[in-house]
User: Fold this.
Amino acid sequence: MKKLISIGVALALLTMVVVPGAVAAQDPVPPETYAKAPFSIVAEGLRLAGDLLDMEEAKMGFIGYDVGQFMEPIAAFTEGPLGWSVNMLAWGVDIVAQAAGPIIDNFAPDYGWLIDVLDDVVCKILMPWDAIVCP
Assistant:
């Protein structure tokens, strides 16, 4: 019994040393932007709901009505094309800022700060978690 306990303690100590070292040794590549994170969270929630529905259907005997199968395409759309709407929004705001810049400079120079605000919005949408120096 003492041998079993000492082996368990040795494995626990080894795990306490090796696992943090292995995790720290990983060199994670940060994503380009975190702006799509909410879409990924919603997609995973939809996948979870689909799995739960599948389990509940099997438990209740509704095997013929596979409702959970419809959640995967919705989750894939949420994560993919709907997630890219963030980039499209930034692109649209940037186009408006570039088009409105000369107009505001010529007709309302006192409102030139609006272009700076739009540029900052684009900058913050695309890279919200980085230390960005916007032009």
